[in-house]
Specification:
heterotrimer; A mainly alpha (185); B mainly alpha (300); C alpha/beta (289); B: 300 residues; mainly alpha; three-stranded antiparallel sheet; two-stranded antiparallel ribbon; 9 helices; 5 strands; transmembrane (chain A)
């Protein structure tokens, strides 16, 4: 078995799962509320996308990062393991939320989730040495909040605030390049 | 020195410590970028809401309570940061206990409630200067609706709740980022979905109460002139298939304010050390229950 | 684990003109350093650049300029960096651990990340390093239940995994009691017989007892590099004791006996005393040699 495979389980144990559980509960509750009132689907969907993208970034936080900084298994592989675990954890949340919400808008939601997550991860890997990469988790939250509040205003600000929803693929491409460029940091 | 005198000195010292901590925290909170982001967004949204044409009669009146959302969310972020510092074991050996330090932080956070009060007062004065807002459809309509005093107090109570929620999240979450995420997910739906609580059944449990509360009073075919002349009415349209009475009530808003204060105290109790939680929990619970009951009694 | 042919060199660390800047501040400002087998002690005041230098030597931080070779390899080349990492152990300053892990689980996890995939070997090695730092009897306790000193020892055990040829330790004695410090010295002396140990510390006693060579850093530069005896010699004939303070001295402080110790020119009525490593360090770190 390779070192990466052997590292998978202890990596999962080293991650903080309480925020994931709290977030998942909150998102399912919001989706259920939205379904019960038959209103607010776009808002619930935006919140889900932003929160799950934020969780992806928070998964990168490793309290023992300093101790593990000089091991031969690269930081990128270790991050990859963490991201794989968080993907496994949020997938059921995503499925439950999208099952609860009416179909409208779901088609563009997954690309939007990918785009926002990649953007936030790209910011996280470029966070200067010594700063907490978890701060990048604020990006998807602020972006969806901006989209929900000023998105309807139109104009350049409104367009930028909805970029993640309206043009996820180009955004994903740009963020992907930034992420790849920062992966060796 | 007698025991009584010693207790008096200790009491005075504790008060002094709370005051000193409160001043430090207040100054720190006033320098918090999160607070000012909230203030700027709230002001910007308020200005924008007055600039755009109303989609329906009463849109501005309905939207107004939610405008304070950014301030409330950002205030809770700022308070959470403040209370998260309590997790750092700084001066753990100091004679000032956690309860005193928490009291100092809470007292300092009152400055945020002050900021909300100032913004609210300015907003209320502007609405008054503007001559009031539109509300309702003919024949039950007014062009000069003013917010009642308890409605005006709602943003202040909401900020008090934000302080309580922020304190609890900051103190109880291990990581600051997790606390922020939980606060965001907690606040966002309540502010964004505030209109979802407009129906009479659930409005007492709303966080941002949007008045008027809509109460169905007749089918589409009903003659609106048969309804009492003092009722504000909402005509059937795209979003409703009936005539509804728009119920605006100072007593309902007062009950809601009570509910908010009760909730704030319950959250504050979560931020306190175990031994100091009893009274805030009891008083907060009583206020919250009283607030909900009062609202149910008022809603027709 | 991929093995490559070892590159034989007498020098473990070869640094030339090493620079690392944070904004306008040069944390490391043109350091030349050649380190062979044995223990090198890094002394210097806070902010002198010791931690930044150690992070560069541990390949965690890339220098802005200058050349660096570790164990005969260039850590700037990704493949060679991985090879260097397979052969070094690094203990950062105030390391944080996973509270829910036991020491054995944590050290085992680090061993996996160091690409040791043989489970039986790993179990033996983890037990060995934990016992070597005196944590053998607590290797199954949760880390959250351990004291700060014990947690430091667990982190040290992780750094010792696989008997690294280059061991980099940033203030390893933090939180250790005097007995544990003695054990640490013995442990590092053993490690130095196999390779190179670079030790950042504020404790001159540790340096005197353990280090073959000592580097004194200040403002991102190495101001002194030599043996501890040579560092003491820089202060010989310049350390005095008197009843009164001397404001004109380079350094002056009150001793436990109530007399004043001065470094610099002799004040009136002062007695010349034998210099210690502390005196040498204080003299060099004040910019006077």
């Amino acid at each position: 078995m390779s070192a990466t495979t052997q590292a998978a389980l202890p990596t999962a144990r080293s991650m903080a799962w309480t925020p994931v559980a709290v977030t998942a509960t909150g998102l399912v509750a919001v989706a259920a509320l939205s379904r019960a009132t038959d209103r607010g689907t776009p808002l619930a969907l935006s919140l889900t996308v932003g929160a799950l993208a934020a969780l992806a970034v928070l998964a990168l936080r490793d309290p023992a990062a300093a101790l593990l900084a000089a091991v031969p298994l690269s930081a990128w592989r270790r991050r990859g393991l963490r991201l794989a675990w968080i993907a496994v954890a949020v997938l059921p949340v995503w499925l439950v939320v999208t099952a609860l919400l009416p179909a409208a808008g779901l088609g563009t939601a997954f690309p939007a989730l990918l785009a926002l997550s990649t953007c936030a991860l790209a910011v996280a890997v470029w966070v200067p040495d010594g700063k907490d990469p978890g701060r990048a988790a604020a990006l998807p939250l602020l972006w969806v909040a901006a989209g929900s509040t000023v998105g309807s205003f139109g104009g350049p600000v409104g367009d930028v605030s909805l970029l993640w929803r309206e043009h996820p693929w180009p955004l994903l491409a740009v963020a992907g390049v930034l992420l790849a460029a920062g992966s060796s940091r | 020195m007698s025991t009584l005198a010693q207790e008096r000195v200790a009491d005075t010292t504790q008060r002094g410590v709370v005051g000193a901590l409160a001043r430090l925290e207040a100054a720190r909170l006033l320098r918090s970028p999160a607070l000012w982001v909230g203030v700027v967004l709230t002001v910007a949204f308020s200005v924008a809401s007055m600039q755009f044409p109303e989609d329906w009669s009463g849109a501005r009146y309905t939207v107004s309570p939610g405008l304070v959302g950014p301030l409330v969310i950002c205030a809770s972020f700022a308070v959470a940061s403040s209370f998260h510092r309590e997790r750092v074991g700084l001066a753990a050996d100091a004679p000032v206990g956690e309860a005193t330090r928490t009291l100092g932080r809470l007292t300092g956070a009152v400055v945020l409630i002050g900021v909300a009060a100032v913004l609210t007062a300015v907003g209320a004065m502007l609405v008054r200067t503007y001559g009031g807002l539109d509300l309702g459809d003919e024949p039950g309509r007014t062009l000069h609706a003013q917010f009642t005093a308890p409605e005006i107090l709602q943003p202040v109570c909401l900020t008090a709740l934000a302080v309580g929620v922020g304190a609890a999240a900051g103190r109880r979450f291990q990581h600051r980022a997790s606390a922020m995420l939980a606060l965001f997910i907690g606040w966002f739906p309540f502010v964004g979905f505030s209109w979802a609580f407009q129906s009479a059944l659930v409005t007492p449990f709303s966080v941002v109460q949007v008045q008027p509360v809509s109460v169905e009073v007749g089918p589409v075919s009903a003659d609106p002139l048969t309804f009492p002349a003092d009722w504000l009415l909402s005509a059937p349209g795209e979003f409703q298939d009936h005539w509804a009475r728009l119920f605006v009530s100072a007593r309902l808003a007062a009950g809601h304010d009570l509910w908010l204060i009760g909730l704030a105290l319950l959250f504050v109790a979560l931020a306190l050390p175990r031994g100091a939680r009893t009274w805030p929990t009891v008083i907060g619970g009583l206020l919250a229950v009283t607030g909900v009951v009062c609202q149910y009694l008022v809603i027709p | 684990m991929t093995e490559t042919a070892p590159v034989r060199t007498a020098l473990t660390v070869e640094a030339t003109g090493l620079v690392k800047r944070y904004g306008r501040t040069a944390a490391v400002d043109g350091i030349d350093l050649a380190v062979g087998p044995g223990v090198l002690g890094l002394l210097g005041p806070n902010g002198a650049g010791k931690t930044t230098l150690l992070r560069m030597l541990s390949t965690v931080l890339a220098p802005d300029s200058g050349s660096l070779r570790l164990l005969g390899r260039d850590p700037g080349v990704p493949q060679e960096r991985v090879e260097v990492r397979r052969r070094l152990g690094y203990l950062p300053q105030n390391p944080r651990l996973y509270p829910s892990f036991t020491p054995l689980e944590l050290v085992d996890y680090v061993a996996v990340l160091k690409e040791h995939t043989d489970v039986a070997w790993r179990r033996r090695e983890c037990t060995r390093v934990l016992e070597s730092v005196g944590m053998g009897d607590r290797m199954h306790h949760r880390i959250r239940t351990l004291s700060g000193g014990m947690q430091q020892r667990v982190a040290l055990a992780a750094a010792l995994l696989g008997s690294p040829e280059l061991l980099l330790l940033d203030e390893p004695a933090t939180g250790l009691d005097p007995e544990q410090r003695l054990e640490l010295r013995s442990l590092l002396a053993t490690s130095a017989q196999r390779g190179t140990v670079v030790l950042s510390t504020h404790n001159t006693g540790e340096v005197a007892a353990l280090c073959h060579r000592v580097a004194v850093m200040r403002e991102g530069r190495v101001w002194f590099l030599g043996t501890p005896a040579e560092l003491i010699a820089t202060a010989e004939g310049r350390v005095w004791e008197s009843e009164d303070p001397d404001p004109t001295a380079l350094r002056t402080w009150m001793t436990a006996a109530g007399t004043y110790r001065h470094i610099g020119a002799p004040p009136a009525g002062a007695d010349l005393v034998a210099a210690t490593l502390d005196d040498g360090y204080l003299l060099v770190s004040a910019g006077h040699q």
